[in-house]
Amino acid sequence: MHSLNRRLARVFGTNTAVLPFTTSGTGGLEAAVVNTVCPGDRVLAISIGYFGDRFASVAEAYGAQVVRWQIPWGRAAGPDELRRTLRKHRDLRAVLLTHNETSTGAANPLSELCQVIRQESAALILVDVVSSLGAMPVDVDRNGIDVAVGVPQKALMAPPGLALISASPRAMDVAKSAAAPRFSLDFGRMATAIAEGTTTYTPPVTVLYGLDAALSRIEAERLPAVYERHERLAAFCRSGVEPLGLRLAASKDCYSPTVTAVRLPEGLPAGLLRQLLEREHSIMVSSARTVWANTHIRIGHMGWVSEAELAEVVTGLETLLRAERIRH
Ligand SMILES: *Cc1c(COP(=O)(O)O)cnc(C)c1O
User: Fold this and answer.
1) Whether the Cβ atoms of residue 297 and residue 270 lie closer than 8 Å to each other
2) Is 98 in the pocket of ligand 1 (CB under 6 A)?
3) What is residue 227's three-state secondary structure?
4) Residues 180-212, buried b or exposed e (16+ Cβ, 10 A)?
5) Which end of the chain is more exposed for a tag (fewer CB within 10 A), N or C?
6) Model's pTM, two decimal places?
7) pLDDT tens digits along 121-156
8) 36 C-beta closer than 6 A to ligand 1
């Protein structure tokens, strides 16, 4: 546990311990909220898509007064707009933010946004880094992030079963006095256990071993090279799908390095395309969420992915789209 913790802390970019809770990423978002936000506290939730909405809903479920700043899907939050929003809403306990919005393929400018929050407010900064950790620099300490929530099963390419949480000294202090009820998700208890080289309750041991192996791969490639590979794969994916007439869903100033969402041509249902891609090409891409469910697909390129694999995805899509055009 000691060595795993040191290695995880490097990926988070922090000097504090990383707290591993036996739950999913969503459980991690819940842990972030129950340790720092009390019922009735005012919270600003910056949502650029489905997972930003979920973070806001978690805070609402625990009785926070949530101000939802809803940004149109496909866009990122802008630092100037954020500054204006923060000046309108004083007395915030926390600001909730998604680093990489997996539902739209858009990434927020994390450092710029954190800097504005630090300048304008005493609010805690809680960040969902679920689909960015291990693929994009999170830089917890440098950005002044109070709570960052990651998972093993996305860019860290290990099995699911953990929420990996870094909590700043400021967040740990707030947690000590926060009145929201909690037990197994308590930061203080877990931090004490981690300092002793153990965890509060039974950890998913298999996941810890998987994570350890994945971190060895990341360390062998070196983090800056891992980040660079994700940028390269994302650019490769975009340059492959755009000539097929698939419109990129995210604006060009905020393309995600880990997932590309595309809009399908009019009249081609996403469900059908996904089915054909899986049946005829053994390729699984993801559906999109809620309002984009029928019109968009999402191509993941996080973790253990190569250019050759993405090239296969592009070829598969090209074959199917050509056949579709012939049919119509
Ligand atoms: C996957 C994901 C989640 C949810 O994680 P679970 O482990 O499924 O609960 C939350 N936020 C983002 C950005 C995600 O990509």
Assistant:
1) yes
2) yes
3) helix
4) bebeebbbbbbbebbeeeebbeebbeebbebbe
5) C
6) 0.97
7) 999 999 999 999 999 999 999 999 999 999 999 999
8) no
The rounded percent of the chain whose pLDDT value lies above 90 is 95
Distance, CA of 281 to CA of 317 (rounded, Å): 9
The two structure tokens encoding residue 92? 């915030």
Nearest ligand 1 atom to the CA of 101 is 13
Q: Is the CB of 131 under 6 A from ligand 1?
A: yes
Q: What is the pLDDT of residues 199-227, one digit of tens each?
A: 999 999 999 999 999 999 999 999 999 99
Buried b / exposed e along 54-87 (16+ C-beta atoms within 10 A): bbbebbeebebebbbbebebbbbbbbeebeebbe
CB atoms within 10 A of CB 9: 17
Q: How far is the CA of 24 from the centre of ligand 1 (A)?
A: 8
Is the pLDDT confidence value at 308 over 80?
yes
Q: How far is the CA of 151 from the centre of ligand 1 (A)?
A: 8
Give the nearest ligand 1 atom to 160 CA.
7
Q: What are phi and psi of 143, to 5 degrees?
A: -85, -5
Residues written for the chain: 328
CA of 55 to the centre of ligand 1 (A): 10
- DSSP string spanning 165-212? EEE-HHHHHHHHH--S--STT-HHHHHHHHHTTS-SS---HHHHHHHH
| 258 Cβ below 6 A of ligand 1 | no
State whether the beta carbon of 103 lies less than 6 angstroms from ligand 1.
no
116 Cβ contact partners less than 8 Å away, ≥ 6 residues apart: 79, 82, 83, 86
